[in-house]
Amino acid sequence: PVQAQGSGGWSPPASAQRCPSRWGANDRRGSMNHMTPERMRDAAQMIREGRKIEIGHMLTQSMPFFGTRRFDVHLKQQFMNPQANRRGSNEEIVITELAQVGTQLDAFPHQTIGDETYNCVNVPGISSRGGFTEMGVETVGTIMARGVVMDIAGLKGTQTLPIDYEITPQDLQQALDRQRVELREGDAMLINTGWAALWGRDNARYVSGCPGLGVAAAEWLIERGPLLLGADNWPVEVAPSRTMPHASLPVHQIALVVHGVHLLENMKLDELVAAGRSEFCFVMQPLRARGFTGSTVAPAAMF
Ligand code: UVW
């Protein structure tokens, strides 16, 4: 585990402490190594009722954006063919950061410790005009796995956790006990904070901060071997953290860079939680976009 410093400052582990990763020095897939044929088959067997709930937001121009990110749609209402059937054609041009808007999966080069990303790969060394030459989101591929949602808002008896609520390992264990479900290695581990209630309603507040995982809770989950960590807020982690006020998104570094665990942000978990589903078959196809730092995604829970 990484150490919090008394001042609220925080330093990530040095290269020698974090590399090679548990998967070996040449590994580039990190937590995706957990997706074995057996786990995929077991996940498919969780689909019993034939129901699905979409657990990502719709991409629209009225969604919240972090920083200068944008999503501008321009309709291209095109030509009418001269043939007798008068076929018209419509398309759109979208100006956006396709990797980092909406419900999104972070790939490893999205974050660094200094110049290094996962497994101490030097980021300038894998940067090219066409994107990253290693560990772009295309290395993730189709995901079908067991998913578990931990309803921390429900545990605390609220719809939405307070903006500065830092989720602890105890909260996670209590939520699992309350929901009578356990975590298994290779699960997509998801957190319901209720923060998504602000999505499209109060976008300024949505991105101004959020409740989420603290460092100890993130490490507790990572020890259990997640396929990915997801939440219904913009960074999965609490932001800013009261216990680490001088650290910028430390869970991003711990998950993506130190352990090679993908983050799934801006989820929409209300319907799934309301349906009382704690475990399900989690299905998601990130874009096959070469060298991207992530991908907008449309995950679903099937059961
Ligand atoms: C940042 O990169 C700041 O955020 P995120 O990964 O949450 O989109």
Automatic annotation (TrEMBL):
InterPro entries: KFase/CYL, KFase_sf, TAT_signal. Residues 3-34 are annotated as: Disordered. It holds the Pfam family Cyclase. The keyword Ion transport does not apply. Residues 25-34 have a biased composition (Basic and acidic residues). Keywords: Signal. This is Kynurenine formamidase. It comes from Roseococcus suduntuyensis. The lineage of its organism: Bacteria, Pseudomonadati, Pseudomonadota, Alphaproteobacteria, Acetobacterales.
